[in-house]
Design goal:
Layout (H helix, E strand, L loop, with lengths): L6 H15 L2 H14 L4 H12 L8 H11 L4 H13 L3 H17 L5 H18 L4 H15 L2 H12 L4 H11 L3 H7 L1
């Protein structure tokens, strides 16, 4: 039985109902209940926007809740990342670039940052740049790949490689391949 006054419990259960059980109506009821109990709980708005509304294709509603989450927790890198992701879903690539750039700027101001989040932001920024036709995506992805390799994050390196391979530019592919193999010094010469 859930504590009737615990927003975190309703929100977490809403997340599970949405992402694991696909019980959409129940998930929405739980998210809304969590937000009603504690309107200042940023995670309730964040997860409702990204993990429920966006999953259901209700992208016109999601930005309202992600904006509330961002106002409540302006230094949350994951909320800033999600804001950019929603813009990508809407194919608003310039706005996604602004969101990811703003998120990276915020991270520069925070003393303790999970560098994997910064790396993921760079991968997402590179994707948005690529989609908008901005040729600097290559440099962004190479930088993200270097950082992922330094962090020992094979999954992030793979994400960079997959992202770069999804486009044109054999030099970027080759450069990212060098990063994936731990030869970061050779990647710069290729790109």
């Amino acid at each position: 039985e859930l504590d009737p006054m615990l927003a975190e419990a309703y929100t977490s259960l809403g997340f599970l109902r949405s992402n694991s059980d696909w019980e959409w109506n129940e998930a929405e009821r739980l998210f809304r209940r969590g937000s009603a109990i504690n309107p200042g709980y940023a995670t309730a708005h964040h997860w409702f926007a990204l993990d429920h509304l966006a999953n259901l294709g209700r992208c016109e509603e999601a930005p309202t809740h992600i904006e509330i989450a961002r106002r409540l927790d302006p230094l949350s890198a994951i909320i800033l990342l999600s804001e950019g992701y929603l813009s990508l879903l809407e194919r608003n690539y310039d706005e996604a670039i602004r969101c990811y750039t703003r998120a990276l700027d915020v991270l520069d101001e925070v003393s303790t940052v999970d560098e994997r989040v910064r790396c993921q932001l760079k991968v997402s920024l590179g994707l948005a740049q690529r989609q908008s036709g901005d040729a600097t995506f290559r440099d962004t992805l190479l930088d993200a790949g270097r950082q992922a390799a330094e962090l020992g994050e094979a999954g992030l390196v793979a994400a960079v490689a997959v992202d770069a391979r999804g486009v044109q530019g054999a030099l970027v592919h080759f450069g990212v391949d060098h990063i994936a193999l731990g030869r970061v010094d050779r990647a710069d010469r290729v790109a």
